[in-house]
Amino acid sequence: MADTPVSPGATAALAATAAPGQAHLDVFRYDDKIVRHFTLATILWGFVGMLVGVIIALQLPFPEANLGEYLSFGRLRPLHTNAVIFAFAGNAIFAAIYYSTQRLCKARMFSDWMSRFHFWGWQGIIVAAAITLPLGITTSKEYAELEWPIDIAITVVWVVFAVNFFGTLWRRREKHMYVALWFYIATIVTVAVLHLGNSMAIPSSFWNSYPIYRGVQDALVQWWYGHNAVAFFLTTPFLGLMYYFLPKAAERPVFSYRLSIVHFWSLVFIYIWAGPHHLNYTAVPEWAATLGMVFSVMLWMPSWGGMINGLFTLRGAWHKLRDSAVLKMFVIGITFYGMSTFEGPMLSVKSVNALSHYTDWNIAHVHSGALGWNGFMTFGMIYWLVPRLWKRELWSQRLANAHFWTGTIGILLYVLAMYTSGITQGLMWRAFDDAGRLLYPDFMETVIQIKPMYWVRLIGGTLYLGGVVMLMVNVWQTIRRAPKDLPDPAVAVPAISGTPAKDLVTS
Amino acid sequence: MSEHDHIPDPDSPLRDEAKPTLPEPVVGEAHDLLIQGHKYDGIREYDNPMPGWWTWIFIACVAFAPVYVLGVHVFDFIDDYGEDLAEAQADLQQIREVYASTGPSFKTDAGALAEYTADPLMAAAGEANFQAVCAACHGNLGQGLIGPNLADDYWLYGAAPEDIYQAINEGFPAQGMPPWQDAFSDEERAQMMAYVVSLHGTDPPGAKEPQGELVVQ
Questions:
Q1: Which of A37, A381, B26, B107 could staple B112 via S-S, CB 3.0–4.6 A?
Q2: What CATH number is given for B110-214 in this structure?
């Protein structure tokens, strides 16, 4: 479907020239201002979330860095995970969705008011989290720590987002929905179900509540949620992001439409059952743990379908990596996606889990996903988006390349340190001497053994954060030089009769 | 995908440079044919098949699932948790028996324990392990912190060497003291017992108030 970028002054003239008998052109504008908002919020919260990560990484080998009750490890750790997942990755996927959905639907977002409400509502929720978590206000459910008033606010904002998104789909001028949109739909629907399901609680005061589930059922619901937060907040929206921004940046067709269909449906169907693998070797019934394991094993190839379609899309474009920091970041991101989605099923296998459970191996696993996949897909997208959103070439390609290398070395140090630490812990905990007694009966012995690895992890995390600072400088210098007036880009596409067009530019 | 019209992709990396217009199909299948009509904001899609290795590994993983589930929970040809645990415990038991029959023997009857308390070398040997695991609750001088004072004349569970030895072995889990018999050898625990006895009457600073019964020795 042809779309023609139109200069702002020419829009009215264009709309008027559509004579009877000719294909009528709808002229409208994309809302890029909201994408700029979400992009800047992504960068800001990414810095905050990762800075808190570096602080808690310091607190483990150097306990003196626990500065009082409110800034102690136990309070800051959920702040770190919430900030990175829901503030950094969250704003990144909203930027991706608001930018690509409008273009894939050939329509402006359904409601500007809803877009603004979504943006400011979400930032308000993040600020509420940043205040309540250090104060110790928590449900103590991992990745769902926020108390019930904030949970209700999340529900309201998410519903507004959903109406805005589906309204845009409804008004689209493109017959088919591209694969990126399927992944966005799966994200929006499933996150709503997960959030409502896991947050069901009876309030006992304004800042306290009790879940309606009890004991092992509560644990199963929690990890049904926790695992699928990874699936539908950190995987499906980022696959949608990949399917839009990677072919755009590489200027290559997507490798296989058929693979995208099969891996989409198999991924969304299988992911939802895999949660109980988080509860291997606990009080859940063994059949539930078995179910979680076999669904995790089945999930391996559906996950790799996304990796294959991403990497194979670059066939014939690999030479572009030399000059493109964006493509380099996408390739590292997709590679880490492939590694961590092989590692996930492997860790769910019970005999592997017997060694890995409760160790730092899990910390390595989630950070290869978050820093590698989510982080670098986001950075690649930002470096691609910023020149287009602010109508100005990126300030420094060299700095973007430096970000790529600093971040990559940072991740490698981070995950290698945590693999070493995790496997050391697992082996020490299960070691017996020749008299049949535990070789390391005192937990402290393992802590002392892995302490050097905590310092290496701190160095890796600090390098990665340094890369984010480079991104901030680069984006800031680009925006400083950008034109002051940034009108929303106008486009003209053939009108589809019967489509309710509310976003038209009128003269 | 026969319903789609195929058009050759002029940008295909598999395109034969000598024949720039229509690429030949590669390895028996049509590769890199664009799907007509699939163009979304400029993004086009190839009608490529899924890689064979991908499809077959996926099928193998799906086939594995019922085999594993039935093997563990129905037909019992794969060990479940209880069986794994029993096997590991039997192995451990065997290791302990072999050690008991071949390893160094060490007497722990009441008479032997009483003799150890008279041996200053035994008490000295127990200090390091006392500081490692006991001091956190009983104080580094045995003056008592969360745990009772070990240096005074008052005892909750008996003051005899065998009473103290048993307390170290089995602990008082309900009161928060863990058992140590799996963590230390008989000899090490006897050394720790001797060290505890040696603390008696040292009157350390910051002593905790007496608990239990007065035992006159």
A1: B107
A2: 1.10.760.10
